[in-house]
Predict the 3D structure of the following.
Amino acid sequence: MQITPEISCRIQLLRLPLIIGIVTIHSSINPVGYTDKFFQSFIAGTWGGSCVAFLFILSGFLFFRNFNLSLNSYIQKLKSRFWTLLVPYLFWNLALLAMVLIVLNVPATSSIIQGHYKQYIGDYSFANFIDCLTGYKSMYPIAFHFWYVRDLMAMMILSPVFLLIAIKIPYLGLALFAAPWLLQLELGFINIQWLGPLFFYLGCLIAVQNLDLTWLDRQKSLIIGIYLGMAIVLTAMQTAEIQTFKHLFECCTRVVGTAAIWCASDLVAGKLEKACLNLSGLAFFVYAAHEPTVTVFKEFFDKLSKPSNSITVIVYYLLIVTIATLVTLAAGSLLQRYTPKFFQTITGARG
């Protein structure tokens, strides 16, 4: 499938907003009332969740648009992903692991590391080291947001299977990938987040079957409106902790949300469009560096003054998202300017 200049521009435009969606998920803080719980759930639990799903679609689409069932094509794809995925994955996880070890072993700073990061160090065994890098035991690597990259690499290794299904049984395959996600299937011996394979396959299907997505743009007002309505209902269910049909409705909202994101990209114009395009090269760096940046600012605001009402929680939440995004954008911009080769290496040549 060929990417037109318009599609290429819209993909580039979406790169940073999608990553900011991920930042909103990890910036959530403990709610103190219904209003702030609803607000954070609406932003992180609906839009943020759809951003994750859309990123898998986008990754699948870009991977399969010029991929075929040949050994040479397969080897070339894996070689390119070695530099764009595996090298950054190892760098950021090893860098965070080293930072945590240093901070933990300096008496003056050892108390800073708590919770998630402290649990990963464990007994300093080789098994713990491998778990820090892969999350095979604890589900997430030490840089926990890199579970997305880890799962993406695993699916790319299995890409011939995805491609074969998309060619031979495209829509039955879609149902087969959707079933374990909808049914919340647990295998016991391995933890799989079924959202990834489903939406990665959906991206594969769009590329292989050359699906015409222009009809989405023709119905964009309706799709965005339906999504906002579903998002409000889902948020109300999450806030009220209503479990009946919640997962099924959440899955439907994710799907409609990915369509709404694509439709919304057609509405962005002017200075906002220009800013998104100009900063798109920093998107992966923001993704990679927003943790532990977000955690640091969470701790800072918590020590500054614990929020006692919903307004304060919402203000803290928005400040954490905004400051973490701006700080990582600034740091990435400096690295991109003064150490371009290093920046390209740690971001998979996405700058």
Summary: The chain has one domain: 5-92+143-181+193-346. Residues 5-92+143-181+193-346 form one domain. The CA atoms of residues 312 and 331 lie 28 Å apart.
